[in-house]
Amino acid sequence: MSNVVLELKDVDVFYGDFQALFKVSFKVEEGMTFAFIGANGGGKSTLLRTIAGLQRPSSGHVLFHGEPVDQFPAHKRVGMGIALVPEGRRVFPSLTVRENLVIGAYGGRKGDWNIESVTELFPLLKPLMKRQASSLSGGEQQALAIGRALMSNPELLLLDEVSLGLAPVVIKRIYEAMVLLVGSGHTILVVEQDVQHVLTVADYVACFLEGKVALEGKPADLTSEAITAAYFGM
Ligand code: ATP
User: Fold this and answer.
1) Which of 52, 59, 211, 222 is in Cβ range 3.0-4.6 Å of 43 for a Cys bridge?
2) Residues enclosing ligand 1, CB less than 6 A?
3) Nearest atom (ligand 1) to Cα of 211
4) pLDDT (tens digit per residue) in 154-164
5) Rounded to the nearest whole angstrom, what is the distance from the C-alpha of residue 196 to the centroid of ligand 1?
6) Is the dihedral angle over the CA atoms 169, 137, 205, 212 positive or is it negative?
7) Contact yes or no for 112/186 (Cβ under 8 A)
8) Residues 12, 210, 9, CA angle at the centre, nearest 5°?
């Protein structure tokens, strides 16, 4: 029996009069890596923010383990096991690396993630504990942002623009970390610009175009021509 962690049913999201998502529906099973691709403005960040509770659907539902969470604020969803790593690696710049990690645990669940296990996953953070987050490189900040989300012991990890602007060596480590996280029971939703790279780890992919799913399927079932066509709306 498959275990559906997350389900979206006909989700519409507006910013004022502007509709960013149109009747978006999908299911995510436990232990899956689900990738969202598509050109800028397609609605991918809006989608993750809606799942995290930072944006409300005007109609439709977000279900976590079959329970509608539409009325739950973001902090309650963190406590249920949903953690977002937002676009742009938003760490608290004036706090130290350690303080950023400690804050990540606030309101979260009990579990195996703590400063020690996060630094085992991202050893590059170990010597930086006392450093102010603003002084870190982009890659270090992304590792910290992911580590901070892990401190809440999430079941479902939402990663927005996971590798954008990072050095190849850091991207490699982050992708290795994603594989390890799924191996240890996490479920991952990832927004990624680097389509080829994300298809190497994704079990399922959905391409967004102007707020709608233009193409979806298992990577092995999708041709690069079909992906390009969906990506550019051809
Ligand atoms: P990107 O890769 O550029 O982040 P995306 O696929 O993540 O693109 P979103 O950021 O979700 O797309 O944006 C979807 C649409 O909603 C875009 O047209 C964007 O301009 C619009 N939008 C996003 N945030 C807001 C906002 N706060 N107010 C008004 N419109 C917004």
Assistant:
1) 211
2) 15, 18, 20, 38, 40-46, 87, 208
3) 14
4) 999 999 998 88
5) 23
6) negative
7) no
8) 30
Domain 4-232 in CATH 3.40.50.300? The answer is yes
Give the closest residue to 67 by CA, choosing from 9, 149, 154, 110.
Answer: 9
Element (H, E) at 37: strand 33-37
Q: Which two tokens stand for residue 132?
A: 């102010």
Please give the pLDDT value at position 1. 53
Q: Where are the domains of the chain?
A: 4-232
How many whole angstroms separate alpha carbon 145 and alpha carbon 208? 25
| Mutational pocket test of ligand 1: of 11, 13, 18, 89, the residue with most ligand atoms within 8 Å of the beta carbon | 18
Q: Supply the Cα-derived Rg of the chain in whole angstroms.
A: 17
Q: Tokens 């979806």 appear where?
A: 216
DSSP 135: G
Residue 20 identity (one-letter amino acid) = A
Pairing relationship of beta strands 212-217 and 204-209 according to DSSP bridges? antiparallel
